[in-house]
Amino acid sequence: LGHGSGGQLMAELLREVIAPALGGAELVEDAAALDLGPARVVLTTDSFVVTPRFFPGGDIGALAVHGTINDLAMRGARPVALCLAYVLEEGLPIEELRRITTSVADASRAAGVPVVTGDTKVVERGGADGIYLTTTGLGVPTADADPSARGARPGDLVLLSGPIGLHGTAILSAREGLGFEAEIASDTRPLHRLVAAMLAAGGRGVHALRDPTRGGLASALTEIAAASAVGVELVEADLPVPPPVAAACDLLGLDPLQVANEGCLVAVVDPAVAPAVLDAMRARPEGASAVVVGRVVDDPAHRVRARTLVGSHRVVDVLVGEQLPRIC
Amino acid sequence: MATATTSRAARIEVHGTVQGVGFRPFVYRLATAMGLAGDVRNAGGHVEIRVRGADPELAALSDRLVAEAPPAARISRLLVTDLPATTVPEAGFRVVASGAATGAVPEVPPDLATCAACVRELFDPADRRHRYPFLNCADCGPRATVIEDLPYDRARTTMSRFPMCSACRAEYLDPANRRFHAEPIACADCGPRLAWHPAGADEPADVGVDALAAAEDAIARGGLVAVKGIGGYQLVCDASAEAALTRLRAAKHRPGKPFAIMVGDLRAADRLVPLDEEAAALLGSPARPVVLLPRRDHAPVAAAVAPNLPVLGVFLPYSPLHHLLLADLARPLVVTSGNRSGEPIATEDRPALTRLGPLTDGVLAHDRPITARYDDSVCRVVAGRPTTVRRARGYAPAPRTLPVPSPRPLLAVGGHLKNTVTLVDGDHAVLGPHVGDLADADTLDAFHETIRQLTRLHAVDPDVVVHDAHPGYLSSQYARRRPASRRLAVQHHHAHVAATAAEHGLRGPFLGVAYDGLGLGDDGTLWGGEILLASLTGYRRVGRFGRAPLPGGEAAVRRPARTALGYLLGAEPLGSPAPELPADGPLGRLPRGEVELVRRMIDRGVNCPPASSAGRLFDAVACLLGLGGAVSYEGEAAVRLEAAAHGRGDLRALAWRLVRRDGLWVYDPLPTLRDVLTASREAPVAEVAARFHTAVAEATAALVEQAAAATGVRTVCLGGGVFQNQRLTRLVLDRLAALDLTTHLPGQVPTNDGGLSFGQAAVAAAVLTGG
Ligand SMILES: [Fe+3]
Ligand SMILES: [Mg+2]
Ligand SMILES: [Zn+2]
Ligand SMILES: [Zn+2]
């Protein structure tokens, strides 16, 4: 296995190993909507493995709550409850476990989504790396809205709720001691209230929602483009990349479009409702700097392109394995 | 005169580049002049002649076919067989119209520069085509850029929308006329017309003669004009007009890369660059490439044409329109492709008007559509041999022969930058025209379009797809998605040296010296300074350059200062100490924070892929010598390093050292780098740069010598972009010759990544054949 960095290899792993073994389940979405007769629910689960466990802007506990809430929100669901499972490595300081659990509790209280059950396992030293968290989330769908990765249509606008690149650079900097910690903090936060406001304003005009986590905006849009059989055209000048992130990415040789986020979302929206959706986003703190960053186009090749500052177009693609230079 | 009793009959098959070059009319005139009876036709990819005559006459005909062939023809083989005399008519010689192709792969003939006879007519006031910008004949004119379908016939070109006038038709149908079956034949009465769109104007203000005059007027006044050429739009201005050049650089977003200069004739070229026989022959060849040549000290062109470089790219007019511009304006012109840097050259009128119109003082268009995009080709004379830097107009897509035919039709999709693709059917390898850098979305579209066009025209449906081993190349990603019964990955540097071997008809074993920037190796590290024991079917690495981390990956490639830091702070330990980080000079001037960050990145292995690259070592040395800490185009630092050494002789080498590691001989670059730093304190940059080239050449010869001793293989193939460096190539060739080794250099196939697809094709064909 060498699939840790996300991107195309992870997609292949899912498509070729995991999905077939699970009876061909389609794993395009991050959460599944289930029809239970009279009731409909949305279900998701996510495991959290992060080094370091504490980083500027958050920790693994907050991340485990926000990540799962956001996966529900991206299907247009109102999160109702969370389950939390720990895998702990023998020797993990109890103090750390206490801090992380407090952080889980704080995040869940702030989001208004309670942790209702859970499980704890301890493995021997070396059997895990400190602590792994798995959160499962249950939500109820919003009436008259069904955002889906398959929903994008040519002509739709692409909206971004806030700046990109913060989480990934903050984690990398903290892990490797690169010194950007003072200026760059993770953006981890729950987005379900933002989504609720967007759906109230745009309803079924909100065609697709995605939180661009691992693989960044590039991955999120590539997945939407493929699932919806469309192309996406971004305008590089309109992408909100905070200057410290831009500087760090430049020095580290990273593409901000490929860096992970935990507190923003990308929405593909019918142009008719876009102004209302944008207003609704801007009225909330987590969407205060929402912007239009591109549009959906017809493209049989389902590509994502970005208009550069000089007016040409570059291909936006997903990382394949480790990032190795393609320049000769 | 042959009589029936003494004569016999023969069939002469002429193979090579013989279609679309005026070969049949030439045979007709020759046979008629010799009083021979028979006929000539295009058959598949060759020309077939059936002829009656006495033995001496038949022998003379064969000789003269070769000796007097049209300039663009290239005869590879004559096959003479006896025929029963009765099958050939006793009198008269006929040209038989092309039949349907007989199984062989049809060929798309490359475009041909205006021939001398047509140039004479162009400037002859008495001629009916006097100053007609689209004249041509069976020996010259557009081919690949007007062909819509094969076989090559007017009805299947973009000229089909111009019905011939009666005068043109008469010439076209007369076997004795040099315009017999000149498919793009035209005159002012029936052919394409120029149209002049002043700045921003959608509709033309002038057409025909007035359009040309208006464009020339704009250029003469120091303006910038877009001109629809043969394979795409071009941007044209006076080569001494600084203001126009500044606009041109801004319009193309091309701050530093040199521009090509078109001059009227060889004499005018010689005023800019001293010409030897090789250079003159290349400039005047029917492909009319841009030729990179050392410039004269006071060459009368603006500094902005090729800032700080001792080399100029020069070429001669190759279409009647270019001849008229050069003759009327009587001065060197900058003629460069009509695109923004990195984008494909514009070929369609609407986008060209929208994009180029606002940037220029006007667009000189015409109404003959361009069916395929062909940039100007670029050549360079290296060690007295013509080599190809960019293979496009005039060369592509003429097929090349593979040493091992492929049992299945295949498509090789090339690299990520300077992309070309190669389509193979049997031993026929169609190396397509230069596409460009695939990271640009429009260029990626052009890549798709080129593949569609080549496969359609040649009626080849490849069921095997061949690609680079780097999974991230957009060409590799295309290969993964294209339906195919089989996909083959070919290692980058194996493809480089296989391209050289295949061009020279070798199957191996040979020693491959692959020097370039970066390619993915089979051990997961990046390669670029490699000695391979190779054949077309496989390779084993037998020598390499020492590794250094590239802090920030591609960021290090764009900023040689970071590559230099990578060498000084993190080079692979090979037993010699790293030099101290200089407190002064280009590295000393870097922000302290950046140096510390890079140190940290290297220590922690953050986006610091290790590379054993020759090209990156050139970058690092260029930086240490103060030749620039950042680059605006690929290979710029290395180009500056070669330029810096210009004029210096073959100076003694800086220190170099080989060590043995894991069964390979490894060139340790650290002693050389230490010497660069020490020597540059006293000696001029030029001297250190020259001595560095010598060191790399000596280290190369030593690596090859070890490999030859260990393997007994005495044939060497050079490949990879670093061998565009004339000085290094000459030094390496000299030293390998002194070791009694036979060394091959690519000539027709680009040594840079433009040749990868051909190498991939050669490897795949051999692998599929099974040895
Ligand atoms: Fe290469
Ligand atoms: Mg998730
Ligand atoms: Zn001619
Ligand atoms: Zn005519």
TrEMBL record, chain B:
The keyword Zinc-finger applies. The active site is at residues 24, 42. Keywords: Hydrolase, Ligase, Metal-binding, Zinc, Zinc-finger. It catalyses: an acyl phosphate + H2O = a carboxylate + phosphate + H(+); C-terminal L-cysteinyl-[HypE protein] + carbamoyl phosphate + ATP + H2O = C-terminal S-carboxamide-L-cysteinyl-[HypE protein] + AMP + phosphate + diphosphate + H(+). PROSITE patterns: ACYLPHOSPHATASE_1, ACYLPHOSPHATASE_3, YRDC. InterPro entries: Acylphosphatase-like_dom (IPR001792), Acylphosphatase-like_dom_sf (IPR036046), Acylphosphatase_CS (IPR017968), ATPase_NBD (IPR043129), Carbamoyltrans_HypF-like (IPR051060), Carbamoyltransferase_HypF (IPR004421), DHBP_synth_RibB-like_a/b_dom (IPR017945), HypF_C (IPR041440). Residues 209-394 form the YrdC-like domain. One of its GO terms (molecular function) is zinc ion binding. It holds the Pfam family Acylphosphatase. It comes from the Bacteria. Residues 9-97 form the Acylphosphatase-like domain. It is an enzyme of class 6 (ligase). Pathway: Protein modification; [NiFe] hydrogenase maturation. Its EC number is 6.2.-.-. The keyword Metal-binding applies. GO terms for biological process: protein maturation. Belongs to the carbamoyltransferase HypF family. This is Carbamoyltransferase. It comes from Streptoalloteichus hindustanus.
